[in-house]
Structures are given as structure tokens and as C-alpha cells.
Amino acid sequence: MTITLKDVAILTGLPISGDAIIGNTTKPGGGWGPLIRDRLGFDMPTTTPNQGRGHPPLNAGQVSVPWLVSHIQQEVEINDETPEEQVERYARIYLIGLVGGFLFPDKSNRWIQGIWLPLLTGDWDAIGEKSWGSAVLAGVYRELCTCSRVGAKQAGAAMFIVQLWVWEHLPMFAPLDPRPYRRNDDELNLLQNLPYGVK
């Protein structure tokens, strides 16, 4: 028994066919700052605003998750009159947070690797045509191998896939349904369109 691509596709809804997730792992000549400014529309300082305490928002090819979240929360809310360009910018920021912070998190959950920026700031159709499920599964297996070494204390990667897989294949470890009562038709219709892991 092992986690397969089919498991990832069914549990998460991530595509497992399409273009491979490949890219340059070295930051561009000018660093990530110009790319962020060009694609996301704001500057990220490379120094800490708190008189040197804490971490800068952009550091060694990584973007600070807390800074990104706080920056988004300071922005105006999206409504029917929000320009399409601004909506697209928020969508890209959300995607960067989702991919870098949930599908490919680091062990601290505080940093998003800058290598995801070029992949998520390009053409919308190209983003959706990539095989994200296979990349996530490869990341999980790599991290399972790394964290099995002597001295390893943490695991990164999308370990929620391992948890969902265990619940599916070894139901004695799955939590009880916190809402055992019958769901209404609206809830059932909503669940019908979501990945199996959400159900």
C-alpha cells in the first residue's frame, strides 16, 4: 500500500496530467523584488521595519508569509467596482500563498520559496495546465525520505495528503464525523463538487 497519483487526484482534486512543474531554482539577477513589483504591484522591503527585530519580508529568496498576509489585509476589499487588474493581483497573491504555504510549505510555515513566483505569475491558462498533483506527491515522498533520517524532528511538504490517505485506507484512525446528523440538500450539493478529501 502506498500513496499514488490517483489518490492525490481523488483526495485533493489537483491535476495529475499536463505540463511538469519545472523551473529555475536560482533567483533572477535582480533578485525576487523586481519580479514581485512587476507581477504583484507592490514593493517588498528587504529590511525589517521593527528596528532590526524579526525577519525581513523578503530574505534569501523567500517571501515572509506573515508579511504577505498582513499586506493583503491592509488592502481594500474586492467588490463589483474593483478594477480587474487589482482582482487579478489578489488572485495571484492568493495562489502564491496557497502553493507556497500549503502545497509546498517549509517546515516553519513562515516562508514561501521564491521559486514559485515565476510559475504563478505567468499566463492563467498555463498555471492551470500544469501537473500540480504529481509535483505535490513528489514533494511528499521526498520529505518522507528526509524526515526518516536520524535526527530529523520535523516534516515539511503537503503532509495533509498522508493524513487523508491514512483516514481513507485505515478508517480506524479517521476521526468520527463531528456532525453525524443528516446533511441538508444544499450541503450535499456543495459537497458533490468538492474533492473527496474535503468530504
Automatic annotation (TrEMBL):
InterPro entries, A to Z: AminoTfrase-like_pln_mobile, MAIN-like
Domain of life: Eukaryota
Residues covered by the Aminotransferase-like plant mobile domain: 1-176
Gene source species: Linum trigynum
Name of the protein this chain belongs to: Aminotransferase-like plant mobile domain-containing protein
PANTHER family: PROTEIN MAIN-LIKE 2
GO annotation, biological process: meristem maintenance
